[in-house]
Amino acid sequence: MNAILNPDKLGLTRRDAIVTATVAGGALAIGACSPAQVLAMGAPDADFGAFGPFVRIAPDGTVTAVSKHIEFGQGTATGLAAVVAEEMDADWDKVTIDLAPGNTKAYANTLMGIQGTGGSTAMNEAWTQMRQAGAAARAMFVQAAADTWKVAPADITVKNGVVHGPGGKSATFAELLPAAAKVAPPQKPVLKDPKDFTLIGTARVTRRDSRAKSTGAPLFTQDVHEPGMLTAVVLHSPRFGGKLKSFDAAAAKKVSGVVDVFEIPTGVAVVAQNTYAARKGREALTNVQWDDAKAEMRSSDQILAAYKTMAADPKADWTAFETKGDATTAFAGPNVQHFTYDFPYLAHAAMEPMNCVAWVDGNKCKLKFASQIPTLDQMNLAAVVGTLPGAIQIETLYAGGSFGRRGCIDSDYVVECVRIAKQVGGNKPVKLVWTREDDMTGGRYRPMAHHDVQVAVGADGYPVAWRHRVVIQSFMKGTAMGGMAKLDKLTVEGVAGSPYFKAIPVVDAQVATPTSPVTTLWWRSVGATHTAMVMEHTLDQLAMKAKIDPVAYRRALYTKAGADKHLKVLNLAAEKAGWGKPLKDGWARGVAVHESFGSVCANVAEVKRDKGGEPKVRRAISVIDCGVAVAPDQVAAQLEGGLNYGLSAGLFGQITLKDGLVRQTNFDGYRVLRMNEAPAIESYIVPSAAHPTGVGEPGTPVIIPAVANALLAGGHGATTSLPFVKS
Q1: Contact predicate 617/605, CB 8 Å
Q2: CA dihedral 388, 391, 397, 399 (to 10 degrees)
Q3: What pLDDT sits at residue 333?
Q4: Domain match, 425 and 457 both
Q5: DSSP secondary-structure letter at 202?
């Protein structure tokens, strides 16, 4: 999700982008405004207090760090709070967290140009900003103490929220707060030398929200119960792209608790006094007719067959994404190996399905929910209610998981909620609830993909030419975030820029992006979800053909490419796994290394097939180079969670269509990893003083090829399609 919005890429109509003089009070010329100004238009002036938008200090000295990134279990809010506390020299035990409201001007993701969480950018992009916020606050307290005690600021130190001066003078943040709040914050606060860190990188940085969550204190959207609130569900087309033709609401309206039933652009909304009544009302709808003229009617195997046909067609609509050398005759010799890989649709399967609470009164709109990309939600909702994006009020709540699902470019379920609340009117709160079945059968999937790879090898067994064809649906093209660019980089990230290509003289890599009504979206680790498997499993097959150890094979290529980070994580993973030591009873090791979101991650997995033929992973080594590890325990947790999430998808994950109808409706059909199936995981972080890079996603894609490579080493052949276990 590394994209920057600008007026040329918003894809807005004049009404969407500029609310007329009747609503806005005057004409507006977008050309005269910056993108940030456009996206923040209509926002009320905010008074963040003396310490700015990221730091609040209570009278008792408690420091609250405001996280502009949503917290959906990844621990980002804790990490950002630790950065503030480090630079402030605050008492970590007195640091709390708050989630920022929707405010593009104050809380934009500096790498995206909008307010949003994704692409594992949270710590990466906010690192310097949060350090500066903490350092500025500290400087204000130091200056306040210096003025009070009539001493030089250089003679003052701060430790654990206490300011110390010459002659044994000291004062707490609470005591100095009135004076500090009057000090002008420095424009360029002095940051700590990393060697002086006492909190960052230590085991002291533990989750600040764990205790509260264990008691049920934090508010999730599903917990919201407002006075007079109504609950809504929507009946959607059973096929992607289907449109509502007609329905009979008479029986539904007779269900006890049902308040109203009406059509919205995406289906039939049933509004009731509670969730149970809304669902019963939806079940009571009769004579529902759908127009499938533009719907996806194919089955998964038909879609995949079309992808394979396209991959073999040199006249298909290809876009080159990496070329090098002369490929004219590079693949004509006898030493060319051919590989193909098929990947299914994948559901996000977040533990808390999609939901939202909205109030609409005329063109005034406020929401309370777990918004992953508030700016996009504000843009999309402004067009619905007829106001400016910044005027849409969003109170950000905790989310029960996302994996990318809550960051939808068209704000699908959020727009539905506001449309329903607008119909209800009167500023009455309406909670929209998507059931598990709603999201599993009509949500946004990781796209289906097909890769076709040809590799010419030299006499030494190493590749000299690499031809790569990727066929995958794009969810970015033509959107506010993707614009009209021909190449969607998300479809090929992990192939494009591969260190292996740097070591190969000839590269011919192209992508084709067929369209389908099936709705797709980024899924944890996005392009790397399929490219890591392709690149790493191909490498092992090449190594096996050349009769070279897979670790040694990679070392040679990384050395030639100058890929020092890859080499470092590979060596550490091999060392910790005991690579080369024999295993007994049918167990085999597999290795994989992949870079995503600026971090390089290596996995070694110990695998064998059980009596039923399913792969069993008993041990996994995970190594990451992610720059400064602000919270090592949380980095390890993200590696472990990401690994299990990837393993779950690799072993079992698939969404399949039959005549356009989704066959998996809940966890009974969409199998996920169980606790007894999870391996023992050892996580290692490469020490680094470099700028932090992504952590939330890099652990997910690497385990899948590590398992495939272990199966290959164990004599079970190559894996050409996922999941490993076919339902």
Answers
A1: yes
A2: 0
A3: 86
A4: no
A5: S
The SS3 of residue 69 is: coil
Region of 325 on the Ramachandran plot (φ > 0 left; ψ -120 to 50 alpha; else beta): left
Choice among 330-334, 477-481, 503-507, 558-562 with the minimum mean pLDDT: 477-481
Q: Across residues 279-298, what is the average pLDDT? A: 98
pLDDT over 80 (residue 23): no
Q: Say whether both 73 and 158 belong to one domain.
A: yes
Alpha carbons 280 and 25: distance in angstroms, whole number? 44
DSSP secondary structure string for all residues of 253-287: HTSTTEEEEEEETTEEEEEESSHHHHHHHHHT-EE
In this predicted model, what pLDDT tens digit does every residue of 132-141 receive, in sequence order?
999 999 999 9
Q: Please identify which residue in the block is written with the tokens 């500290």.
A: 138
Evaluate if residue 19 carries a pLDDT over 50.
no
Q: What is the dihedral of CA 454, 457, 463, 464, to 10 degrees?
A: -90
Domain shared by 565 and 470, yes or no = yes
pLDDT digits (tens, 9 = 90+) for 40-67: 888 888 889 999 999 999 999 999 999 9
Whether 125 maps to a domain, the answer reads yes
Question: Both 63 and 118 in a single domain?
Answer: yes
Question: What is the spatial distance between Cα 198 and Cα 290, in angstroms, rounded to a whole number?
Answer: 62
The residue behind tokens 């870079």 is 595
Q: How far apart are CA 627 and CA 194, in angstroms?
A: 12
Report the length, in residues, of the chain.
727
Question: Quick one: 619 exposed, middle or buried, by C-beta within 10 A (0-12, 13-18, 19+)?
Answer: middle
Q: What is the pLDDT of residues 78-118, one digit of tens each?
A: 999 999 999 999 999 999 999 999 999 999 999 999 999 99
Residue 718 lies in a domain: no
Measured between alpha carbons, how far is 557 from 35 in angstroms, rounded to an integer?
A: 43
Residues 535 and 458 in one domain: yes
Q: Which CA distances in Å does 426 have to 43, 263, 362? A: 22, 19, 8
